[in-house]
Amino acid sequence: MNSDTKQREEGKKPVFITQNQVMKDLLAKVKLVANTKATLLLTGENGTGKEVLARLVHYYSSRSNKDMIAINCGAIPSELVESELFGHEKGAFTGASEKKEGCFELADKSTLFLDEIGEMPSDIQVKLLRAVELRAFRRVGGKKEIDVDTRIISATNKELVDQIKSGNFREDLFYRLNVIELNIPPLRKRRGDIPLLIDYYQNDVSESYQMDPIEFSDECLGILKSYDWPGNVRELKNIVERFVVLYSGKEVGPDAIPSHIKGGDNIYPVNFESEFDKYIQIPIGISLAEVERKVINHTLSSVDNNKTEASKILGFSRKTLHNKLERYAKG
């Protein structure tokens, strides 16, 4: 995002770097909701910084004296998700040699961050709904109800409305988690922040690795600002770290930029300083399929990822758009 975090110490304020008005408005909302118990749903593409925003909400809340507990719902085997969330009693299942507290219990009087909530197994969604509604649960194999005061923040890079329609996500759970939605725009819609982030990361990484800072030529910065950054801030940070390691104390020129960033397969926005990328220029030598993919992505960006509106602009049905996006995602 036009922002990111430098959070090596628990409890340290996450750092957001932005000059973008949309992001400034979003940060203002964070402060407004921080001291409520309202459940939050953070939406946005991968790498935009949803966990950073969750940590900022926690930092500004009255719960910040305790650590925020985070769990990635897509990174845990489905058979272990319930135990990770709610804990288990000794002997509850094979291998349960002792009692274990789950994330809900650990996050009592604190914040529980459920990342990639769209990956939550269907059978666990029912139990999660009950825990969110009642702020109470039972450990796996347990009989006693355990009450907790846990603030829930969820995050997803998926369109949960589409997941509901396909039967992969419960509608009642969606409404419970989506009391307040905060959407983080992708980096390509905040290009003015790219130089700020580059400068921040190159200084941060140089200091961390005890290496000399680097500089970027104007041409190099122009290419980096033109790139779409599909991996968003996470991708930008990784690229800057690579440059610091390889070019310590030197100026980075366009020849150092990886081919996938500067190559002919890119379609560059003509005016990347504007709030909306209204025009694109298409280099000669790329496939029509790539042209279509980029046009669709830029159209979605211009309407805040509203697929219904993008479909109308592009002149085909929402289902066709959905099918095309799925095809692009599979490569």
UniProtKB/TrEMBL annotation:
**Signal sequence residues:** none
Alphabetic keyword roster: ATP-binding, Nucleotide-binding, Transcription, Transcription regulation
Tell me the InterPro entries matching this sequence. Answer: AAA+_ATPase, AAA_lid_NorR, Homeodomain-like_sf, HTH_Fis, P-loop_NTPase, Sigma_54_int, Sigma_54_int_dom_CS
Under the heading Gene3D superfamilies, the entry gives:
1.10.8.60, Homeodomain-like, P-loop containing nucleotide triphosphate hydrolases
- Whether Transport counts among this entry's keywords is no
Q: Which domain of life is it from?
A: Bacteria
Q: Sigma-54 factor interaction domain location, by residue?
A: 16-245
Tagged with keyword Transcription: yes
Question: Pfam families of this UniProt entry?
Answer: AAA_lid_14, HTH_8, Sigma54_activat
Q: Which PANTHER family match?
A: SIGMA L-DEPENDENT TRANSCRIPTIONAL REGULATOR YPLP-RELATED, TRANSCRIPTIONAL REGULATORY PROTEIN
This one is known as: Sigma-54-dependent Fis family transcriptional regulator
Q: Which organism is it from?
A: Fodinibius salsisoli
